[in-house]
Amino acid sequence: MATYLDFENSIRLIDEDISSAKIKGDGHAVEILEKSLNKEISKTYKNLSEYQKLQLARHPDRPYAIDYIRALLKDAYELHGDRNFADDAAIICYIGYLENRKVIVIGEQKGRGTKNKIKRNFGMPHPEGYRKALRVARLAEKFDLPILFLIDTPGAYPGIAAEERGQSEAIARNLYEMSKLNTKSVSVVIGEGGSGGALAIGVSDRIAMMRYSVFSVISPEGCAAILWNDPAKQESATKAMKITAEDLYGLKLVDAIIDEPLVGAHRDKESAARAVGEYFIKSLEELDMMSDSERLEKRYEKIISIGAYEER
Fold first, then answer.
1. Helical H runs in 46-180?
2. ∠183-185-187 over CA atoms, to 5°?
3. Cβ pair 270, 176 in contact under 8 A
4. What is the C-alpha to C-alpha distance for residues 1 and 3, in angstroms, rounded to an integer?
5. Using one digit for the tens of pLDDT, what is the confidence trace for 215-274?
6. Integer Cα distance of 97 and 111 in angstroms
7. Are 215 and 209 in contact (CB under 8 A)?
8. Is residue 291 packed enough to be buried (19+ CB in 10 Å), middle (13-18) or exposed (0-12)?
9. Alpha carbon of 96 to those of 6, 77, 104, 138, 225: distances in Å?
């Protein structure tokens, strides 16, 4: 069954009327109701607030990394383990073909259903997850394979065991190593981009965000708790933090916004996957026109241009 957010209540009511009309076999009513549904969807989604976009980024029906991989890759084969400690299921790595081009996809996977969410640690990677991502990225470099990173995490796992195994070092190592990785790379925020947990697979030649995704240094709930000692003020925090795709594109922190279906990726997964695939292929075509040294120089310039400071 579809999951509806609070602001989708009017859409839910029309959907229920359509279902009833179909059961009764009233084709004329279905046709009229579907027109009303399209108008209501257009009205609702064209006037979303920052907080509503955050809710969409976290929507339980939103496609996860594995959904994009299954939709985009042919002959996909999963690569496991960091060759040191364990195979972290919160990070998934696949090799396969996208439009007859061999590529590697590395993504953060949240999981569906209680059992699978626990297996995937709710999309919060341990250090071995980031070390697995780096191992596979180096494999891509060795064989000159382009990489697609799919970012979707609330953040890196903050547990004691993760800290004992060097969570901060693993993230920092990825930032350093991937900044100079000599292969074409594209990162796409498909849902939540949470702090260092997202940055650890977010250093690349191109970085884009889906229309209804978010990218932030801290969750709005965490920000509200720190600033106002009240997690309930998360809506105000979401607006103040400037974490939507439009905000970050305006600040020149991301290179592009990928248009997902008006109704959101959770209602049209196929179109969302197609949009990501098209952006990836287009980006690779542009990167193919650069020499390795030129591409690495542009990546370096992009990284050092982030942020602002004053000398006193």
1. 50-57, 65-72, 113-119, 127-142, 160-164, 167-179
2. 160
3. no
4. 7
5. 999 889 889 999 899 888 999 999 999 999 999 999 999 999 999 888 889 989 999 999
6. 24
7. yes
8. exposed
9. 39, 6, 7, 16, 43
Alpha carbon separation from 222 to 160, 232, 234, 245, 253 (Å, rounded): 19, 10, 8, 20, 22
pLDDT of residue 305: 87
Residue 157 in tokens = 């796992």
Structure tokens at 255: 């290179």
Q: What is the DSSP letter of 284?
A: H
pLDDT of residue 294: 96
Interatomic CA distance for residues 75 and 112, integer angstroms: 24
Domains and CATH numbers, the chain: 9-47 (no CATH), 53-304 (3.90.226.10)
> Environment class of residue 43 by beta-carbon count within 10 Å: exposed (0-12), middle (13-18) or buried (19+)?
exposed
pLDDT at 200: 94
Q: With contact defined as beta carbons under 8 Å apart, do 140 and 177 qualify?
A: no
- For the chain, residues with pLDDT lower than 50 are none
Q: Alpha-carbon distance 133 to 75, whole Å?
A: 20
* Confidence (pLDDT) at 90: 97
Helix, strand or coil, per DSSP, at residue 173: helix
Distance between CA atoms of 21 and 25, rounded to whole angstroms? 6
pLDDT score for 156: 95
